[in-house]
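stage 2 :: seqdesign
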């Protein structure tokens, strides 16, 4: 059982546990200890969270959880809670660690780190630290700045680590989790998933019945897989709607119109809504405001499309009240979907939805991560060009212009983006990177010299990242000659851009998109 203290990664922990073939469920930290124990968990994992354990309003923990004989693993905030509740010390030591950190294993052969290297890369995201372990606990790892980075009390079956073993950038994380499950808690890897496709098709049929639905189709992986699932469930009761909001990349609308329909045979309605989105966005530079506006306009366009379909279908059309979206679990988490989870950004299809939404949502991928969605897509027989496509955010180039969005700026960014994509594809790097946002710093200017003349132009940022599920990411080490070609071409070919910079920040602390 994963107890969620408002973590960005709670669902990820549950998923890693399932990957270890042990069934897992998530419960909020507000659930009383008695109720948690009444569910008879074989093991408990305490998640991370945004609070500081010593703060007045911080979520606390009932010591009964440590005394019931159930093996417990604390991660990050959960580790700090465990340390404090059992008599150790947690404070703000000033030694913050975000992103890549080297962990030194202090005790070889410990339950959690058995068989893993003495020095290993872990992903950290914390500002507080445990400075003294509770009595009876052995310190099993440290970092350059944090002396107590992991501890265990094997007799009581209590374990804790300051880092996040659940994220893929912690190179031995899965092994640490499995050691807890198999060695610490003595569980066997015996659980398997039933087919997600069959389960979802049945659920969609039950939800939609004989009614009709529309699906927001972007050409991206998520909506393609969602559409294919719904099509399998309800066939021609589904119509897909592609919204051209004027924030798409070069050539994208044409590609969806031609290639996508050819590959999937869906019924597609293309709506040109550029004026409406750009008018609504005029003069707005706050990222959250942009996201909310885009989310609202999307729904308004879907409503209009629905009205048109109803008119076309006559009386039978009254039933079009379902909206299928390719919402994924990371969209939900990062929009503050869990209890006490910080809102990092409102994804247009979750937190950005208007309150007066008239549709009933159908979101068959809401609990899944990208790599799982790709597997479902493959199972449904979608072509590789769709299943392996890099993600592109629904708000499109609107959240890749730092500053207000207008047609002129969009044209600049579209050109720069097209060059970067062309060169990355030519270099055969598409499958190596997760995605490479190109960002226009429209409110920043710098001095350059071009053709012996002074220029005062805008910088463009390249943000190539590697990731497994977008929850964490690292910057991609692209070959210098590819970067150089992109830089030369952008500054030569795109008017008003006189500088190209590379974003070398991991996530955390950065996010993938700039807004
Ligand atoms: N231009 C668009 N027209 C219609 N619906 C859209 C559009 N852009 C996004 N959506 C809707 O919002 C959802 C979320 O967008 P998101 O970008 O996360 O997914 P995607 O485009 O399907 O896949 P990917 O993440 O691979 O780009 C989509 O699944 C789709 O339902
Ligand atoms: O459909 C989407 N609607 C959104 O509002 C949105 N914002 C970010 N993204 C994509 O999500 C992943 C994680 O992005 P961040 O690290 O920037 O949060 C990355 O793959 C981003 O491209 C979005 N996708
Ligand atoms: N990711 C976490 O759990 C962070 C725990 C705590 N908020 C800290 O900053 O140390
Ligand atoms: Mg997309």
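stage 2 :: out
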């Amino acid at each position: 059982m994963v107890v969620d203290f408002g973590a960005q990664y709670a669902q990820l922990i549950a998923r890693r546990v399932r990957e270890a073939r042990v069934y897992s469920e998530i419960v909020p930290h507000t659930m009383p200890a008695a109720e948690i124990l009444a569910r008879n968990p074989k093991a408990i994992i305490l998640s991370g969270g945004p609070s500081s354990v010593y703060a007045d309003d911080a979520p606390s923990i009932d010591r009964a959880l440590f005394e019931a004989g159930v093996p417990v693993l604390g991660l990050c905030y959960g580790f700090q809670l465990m340390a404090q509740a059992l008599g150790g010390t947690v404070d703000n030591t000033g030694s913050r660690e975000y992103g890549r950190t080297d962990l030194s294993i202090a005790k070889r052969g410990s339950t959690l780190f058995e068989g893993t290297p003495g020095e290993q890369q872990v992903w950290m995201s914390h500002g507080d630290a445990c400075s003294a372990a509770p009595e009876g606990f052995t310190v099993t790892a440290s970092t350059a700045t944090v002396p107590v980075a992991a501890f265990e009390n094997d007799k009581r079956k209590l374990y804790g680590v300051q880092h996040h073993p659940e994220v893929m950038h912690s190179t031995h994380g899965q092994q640490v989790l499995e050691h807890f499950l198999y060695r610490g808690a003595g569980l066997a890897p015996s659980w398997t998933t039933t087919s997600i496709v069959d389960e979802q098709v049945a659920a969609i049929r039950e939800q939609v019945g004989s009614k009709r639905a529309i699906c927001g189709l972007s050409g991206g992986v998520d909506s393609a897989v969602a559409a294919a699932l719904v099509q399998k469930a309800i066939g021609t009761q589904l119509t897909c709607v592609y919204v051209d909001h004027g924030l798409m990349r070069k050539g994208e609308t044409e590609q969806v119109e031609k290639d996508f329909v050819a590959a999937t045979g869906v019924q597609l309605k293309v709506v040109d809504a550029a004026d409406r989105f750009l008018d609504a966005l005029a003069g707005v530079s706050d990222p959250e405001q942009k996201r909310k506006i885009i989310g609202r306009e999307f729904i308004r366009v879907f409503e209009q499309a629905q009205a048109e379909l109803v008119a076309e279908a006559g009386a039978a059309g009254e039933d079009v009240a379902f909206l299928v979206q390719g919402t994924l679990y990371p969209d939900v988490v990062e929009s503050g979907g869990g209890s006490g989870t910080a809102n990092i950004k409102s994804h247009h299809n979750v937190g950005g939805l208007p309150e007066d939404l008239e549709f009933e949502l159908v979101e068959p991928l809401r609990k899944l991560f990208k790599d799982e969605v790709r597997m479902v897509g493959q199972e449904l027989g979608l072509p590789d060009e769709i299943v392996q496509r890099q993600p592109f955010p629904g708000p499109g180039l609107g959240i890749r212009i730092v500053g207000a969005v207008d047609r002129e700026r969009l044209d600049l960014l579209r050109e720069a983006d097209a060059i970067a994509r062309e060169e990355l594809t030519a270099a055969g790097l598409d499958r190596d990177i997760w995605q490479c946002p190109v960002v226009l710093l429209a409110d920043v200017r710098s001095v350059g010299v071009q053709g012996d003349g002074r220029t005062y132009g805008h910088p463009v940022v390249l943000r190539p990242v590697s990731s497994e599920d977008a929850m964490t990411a690292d910057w991609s080490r692209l070959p210098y000659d590819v970067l150089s070609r992109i830089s030369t071409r952008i500054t030569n070919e795109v008017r008003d851009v006189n500088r190209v910079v590379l974003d070398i920040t991991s996530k955390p602390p950065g996010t993938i998109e700039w807004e």
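stage 3 :: structure notes
- The radius of gyration is 25 Å.
- The chain has a mean pLDDT of 92.
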